[in-house]
Amino acid sequence: MPSRFFSTAALLVPVLALAGAAQADTPTDTPAGVAKKIEAYYKDRSDIRAVFTQVVKKPGRARAITKEGNVFFKRPGMMRWDYQKPEKVFYISDGTTLWTYQPEDALVTKLDVKSSELYHQSRYLFGQGNLTEDFDVAAHAATPEKDGFGLLLKPKKSARDFKQLVLVVDPSTGEIRRTELTDPYDNVSIVTFQKLEYRTLDEKPFRFTPPANATIRDLSKQAPASK
Q1: In angstroms, rounded to a whole number, what is the distance separating the alpha carbons of residues 160 and 224?
Q2: What is the DSSP annotation of the chain?
Q3: For the whole model, what pTM was predicted?
Q4: Which residues of the chain carry a pLDDT beneath 70?
Q5: How many structural domains does the chain have?
Q6: What is the SS3 assignment for 131-165?
Q7: Cα–Cα distance between 212 and 169 in angstroms, integer?
Q8: CA–CA distance from 46 to each of 126, 155, 200, 204, 215 (Å)?
Q9: What residues make up the domain containing 68?
Q10: What CATH code is carried by the domain that includes residue 21?
Q11: Is residue 189 part of a domain?
């Protein structure tokens, strides 16, 4: 999916199930300790559903873009974002292909999920990555509500998809409450989660077949953009 589309509509989401459990000799009030606590919390939680609010802030624009909907995650690598406001848009991935469906325009976009910013912001949620191996971790002021421990993540390797990711975490449990992603153009996407549930989800909603009347844009064969 074009980077412009993602930067305005879908710089999405958090971090879940990473390999390994918390180590007793790692202080839990340090960035490394919080990272371990996140891993431990999501270790046995393979299915997630939640209500989300996304706010996208763009440089030079005083007015932020606000969107709302429901999100679902299922291991390994499945996710579904059902945007309800201000318009209906669906992002559906079986772990390999990311489909975007805009019903009002009867438009479908197909993309290799690993080429999308959506994947790179949310892949830790379904266990595809390791916080301390993939990022330099540090404390960050939990903004704007100061409602948890802010964990600042900066990629150890060059990343074309984002500059940094902040996770706002319940320090007593390791549950992620909010994610804040900054892309290469300094657009900031803030996703806040509410009504989190951890119950088994059916795989069927993570499969997508384009409607017969839809126009399909297949971007899955495009070469990755240069860094």
Answers
A1: 10
A2: --HHHHHHH---------SS---TTS-TTSHHHHHHHHHHHHTT--EEEEEEEEEEE-TT-SSPEEEEEEEEEETTTEEEEEEEESS-EEEEESSSEEEEEEGGGTEEEEEEGGGSHHHHHHGGGGT-S-HHHHEEEEEE--TTT--SEEEEEEESS--SS-SEEEEEE-TTT--EEEEEEE-TT--EEEEEEEEEE-----SGGG-----TT-EEEE-TTSPPPP-
A3: 0.81
A4: 1-28, 117-118, 120-129, 142-147, 159-160, 222-227
A5: 1
A6: HHHHEEEEEECCCCCCCCEEEEEEECCCCCCCCEE
A7: 43
A8: 7, 25, 8, 16, 34
A9: 3-132+194-218
A10: 2.50.20.10
A11: no
The reported pLDDT for the residue numbered 7 is 40
Residue with token string 């974002």: 81
pLDDT at 43: 81
